[in-house]
Amino acid sequence: MPLYGRSFYNTTGLGHPFSTAGAGSWAAGVWDYKVLPRPGAQEVYDPAVGSSYSWDFRTRELISYDNPSSVRNKAAFIKSKGLGGAMFWEAEW
C-alpha cells in the first residue's frame, strides 16, 4: 500500500477528465502521505469502494491516496482471504 498520493489538476472531481499531474512533495504529481490532505482540500472516504481521496474545488486538484479507513478496509480483505500479509512502500529518494 502506498504511503503517498497521486495528484490530478484541472478536474471537476473523481471520474472526470484532468489536464495534467499536479504539483508534489518531491516529484510532479506525487505527494508524501504526511502532508495530505493539502490545506483547503476536503478528504473524502467512499465506504462503498473502500478508497479515499482529497478534493480542492478552488485549485481543481484531486489527490488519490490511502487513509487509515482505506488501509483498515484493505487489511480486512487480506485477513478474510487468508493472505500472508501486506506491505507499505514510499516512493521517495
What topology does this entry show?
Layout lengths: L3 E6 L10 E2 L8 E3 L9 E5 L4 E6 L4 E5 L2 H13 L13
Protein name: chitinase
Organism: Colletotrichum abscissum
GO cellular component, one term: extracellular region
Number of helices: 1
Strand content: 25-35%
Task: Please give the domain count.
Answer: 1
| Major beta sheet summary | 6 strands, antiparallel
Helix content: 10-25%
Number of strands: 6
- Backbone CA Rg: 14 Å
What's the short story on this structure?
The chain has 93 residues and is α+β, with helices and mostly antiparallel strands. The chain contains one helix and six strands. A hairpin with a 4-residue loop joins strand 4 and strand 5 (51-56).
Task: Characterise the protein shown here.
The chain is of the alpha+beta class. The chain has one domain: Chitinase A, domain 3 (Roll). Helix content is 14%, strand content 29%. It contains 1 helix and 6 strands; from the N terminus they run ββββββα. It has one helix spanning 68-80; strands at residues 4-9, 20-21, 30-32, 42-46, 51-56, 61-65. Strands 1, 2, 3, 4, 5 and 6 form a 6-stranded antiparallel β-sheet that branches. A hairpin with a 4-residue loop joins strand 5 and strand 6. The longest helix is centred in the C-terminal third of the chain and has 13 residues, at 68-80. The protein starts with a strand and ends in a 13-residue tail after the last helix. It catalyses: Random endo-hydrolysis of N-acetyl-beta-D-glucosaminide (1->4)-beta-linkages in chitin and chitodextrins.
